[in-house]
Amino acid sequence: MKKLSNAQIAWRAAQDLPDGAYVNLGIGFPEMIATFKPEGREVTYHTENGILDFGEAPPAGEEDWDLINAGKKAVTLNPGASFFHHADSFAMVRGGHLDVAVLGAYEVAETGDLANWSTGPGSVPAVGGAMDLVHGAKQVWVVTDHVTKKGEPKLLEKCRLPLTGVGCVTTIYTSLAVIDVIDKRFVVREKLPSISIEALQAVTGATLVVGETVGDLNVPEL
Amino acid sequence: MNKIYPGIEEALDGIEDGMSVMIGGFGGAGAPIELIHALVARYKATGSPGRLTVINNNAGNGAIGIAAMIYAGMVAKMVCSFPRSSDPKAFTDKYLAGEIELELVPQGTLAERIRAGGAGIPAFYTPTSFGTDIAKGKPVAEFDGRSYVQERWMKADVALIKAELADRKGNLTFRKAARNFSPLMAMAAKTTIVQASRVVEPGAIDPETVVTPGIFVDRIVEVPNPAQEEALLREGAKS
């Protein structure tokens, strides 16, 4: 089955970044979205360790390790950047000031519940800012493969893994489709032209709602 | 009023077994390496201070800073949001062996609990963690149709902070994103101990740019050209 690469998923999510938005991109995969921001749109990135309006990574050898993002990677500043302490940073998060937060996921439920921080007992639990970020941003996007490495659905009626947040996810950009969570249902906005609704449903662990118009998920080769 | 101490040892005086210690920094940015390592050296030489509760966003990286405290055996409990790093072995081994306790706190809740501790607010409600394992056993209340979890303030006996500029009255500035938790911790500890990269005369820091006002600071020691934890790790520092 043809599916999108992570870079392609990030590209698709980036097309929905609104001009003028304040955005927090989670560590790892979601960070790739910044690479694909459409020309002409101004997006201000927030990192929860205390910077607004950071830019790209500096050239190797020019890192300042007091100037890092939440993933502890070195960044640069855009003109107009600001520093602030953690309580202010999370006031921006929980206070509803961010327009979009993008996270990865182990599982997403049709109710909008998200599990992305713990795979259960036997490992060291680590949550960071994820539980804060899912509450407060006006939109919470998830970028993820549509299924697990074993091929099992990640979009479910109910999460099995420990929850990060309840009823928080608004849109899921997967390797096969773009799905909005509306009234506790998965509503298909776009799907790859090469996959049928039936085939998409077969790899999804909850009922998909298909409106009259399902767009084609067209992404360039990257 | 003069909060300047002549040396690190003097500034760290009075930290005892079983105390709670807030340590500024997010990853390597803002970690007060010289203060931490002096405390480790004292523990190795005298066996004290041990059984510490350490509050930081993370739980050490490699074998320096907080990881050195954990390896030395002076930490009984970590309070943090993200006990992982590029090299979390110090904490992970002890945690999985049941030799160190972990209180996992979401990052924004950790910040707000510390702020509340410093601001005299015993408890507050946050949407963070509602419906998750982290909220188990905590009071929940509904406000304007939405559910929130009650969290309590957090205070500490001591805060160890790295600042950029300081004056003898305790006013501080921080360097870039090394600010992170430090202004909050300075408020929430009984004794706030600061290593400043440069001590300047009162008035040399523009009042408009003071980040932490001196009232929150007790002791300052000048540490010029301080080590940076991430830079040390990348240079291959072992301990």
Automatic annotation (TrEMBL), chain A:
Q: Which residues form the signal peptide?
A: none
- Which residues lie in coiled coils? none
- SMART domains with a match to the protein in the record: CoA_trans
Q: Write the record's keywords in alphabetical order, separated by commas.
A: Transferase
The record's annotation in Pfam families points to: CoA_trans (PF01144)
Q: Name one GO molecular function term.
A: CoA-transferase activity
Highest taxon of the source?
Bacteria
Question: Which family does this protein fall into?
Answer: Belongs to the 3-oxoacid CoA-transferase subunit B family.
User: Mind telling me which NCBIfam families this protein's record contains?
Assistant: pcaJ_scoB_fam
Q: What is this protein called?
A: CoA transferase subunit B
From TrEMBL, chain B:
Q: Which SUPFAM superfamilies match?
A: NagB/RpiA/CoA transferase-like
Q: Which InterPro entries match?
A: 3-oxoacid_CoA-transf_A, CoA_trans_fam_I, CoA_transf_BS, NagB/RpiA_transferase-like
Iron keyword on record: no
Pfam families reported for this sequence: CoA_trans
UniProt keyword annotation of Transferase present: yes
Listed A to Z, the keywords are:
Transferase
GO MF term set: CoA-transferase activity
> Matching PANTHER family, A to Z?
ACETATE COA-TRANSFERASE SUBUNIT ALPHA, KETOACID-COENZYME A TRANSFERASE
The UniProt family comment states: Belongs to the 3-oxoacid CoA-transferase subunit A family.
Name recorded for this polypeptide: 3-oxoacid CoA-transferase subunit A
